[in-house]
């Protein structure tokens, strides 16, 4: 089954949104495969956001994402990469639809509460950056026959 990497950013942790965000993906029917509260190092931040190295806001992005703990997660389910991005809403919270996470909880693009992988390639890369294989669990849940 498809997996994606999602992360509550430092603003979401500070604003007590971890439970709310986990709740949304659980209730959707996705399965949590791994999770940890962690402090991102500069090295990991620069690697994770490597595609944005040349952007003017790169320094700001790295200092923000390392400014406090993040809640890193691996979620599993059919089409979870695209569906999680839809549930997150547009990058700029002011453009994100109401009912999405960024639409409901954010105001500025630099503090937009959550990160999610944008493709199968980035999901694989980001899961590998943040998690050891042993920390991603494969298990069955009794609700799956009521979801699929
Ligand atoms: P992520 O899931 O965090 O990767 O967001 P995204 O895929 O919706 O957007 P993208 O990868 O293009 O940008 C990565 C992050 O950079 C965004 O989530 C924003 O927090 C941040 N960002 C994007 N544009 C700006 C900007 O103009 N200024 C600042 N400060 N941050 C920006
Ligand atoms: Mg991105």
UniProtKB/TrEMBL annotation:
Gene3D superfamilies: Nucleoside diphosphate kinase-like domain. It comes from Virgibacillus siamensis. SMART domains: NDK. This is Nucleoside diphosphate kinase. Keywords: ATP-binding, Cytoplasm, Kinase, Magnesium, Metal-binding, Nucleotide metabolism, Nucleotide-binding, Phosphoprotein, Transferase. Its cofactor is Mg(2+). It is found in: Cytoplasm. The active site is at 115 (pros-phosphohistidine intermediate). Belongs to the NDK family. It is an enzyme of class 2 (transferase). GO terms for molecular function: kinase activity. Its EC number is 2.7.4.6. It catalyses: a ribonucleoside 5'-diphosphate + ATP = a ribonucleoside 5'-triphosphate + ADP; a 2'-deoxyribonucleoside 5'-diphosphate + ATP = a 2'-deoxyribonucleoside 5'-triphosphate + ADP. ATP binds at residues 9, 57, 85, 91, 102, 112.
């Amino acid at each position: 089954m498809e997996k994606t990497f999602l992360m509550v950013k430092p603003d979401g942790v500070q604003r007590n949104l971890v439970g709310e965000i986990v709740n949304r993906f659980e209730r959707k029917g996705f399965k949590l495969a791994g999770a940890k509260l962690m402090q991102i190092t500069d090295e990991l931040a620069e690697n994770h956001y490597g595609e944005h190295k040349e952007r003017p806001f790169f320094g700001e992005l790295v200092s923000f994402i390392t400014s406090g703990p993040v809640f890193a997660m691996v979620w599993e389910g059919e089409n979870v990469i695209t569906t999680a991005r839809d549930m997150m809403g547009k990058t700029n919270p002011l453009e994100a639809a109401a009912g999405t996470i960024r639409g409901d909880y954010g105001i500025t693009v630099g503090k937009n509460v959550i990160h999610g992988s944008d493709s199968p390639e980035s999901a694989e890369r980001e899961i590998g950056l943040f998690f050891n294989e042993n920390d991603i669990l494969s298990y069955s849940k009794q609700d799956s026959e009521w979801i699929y």
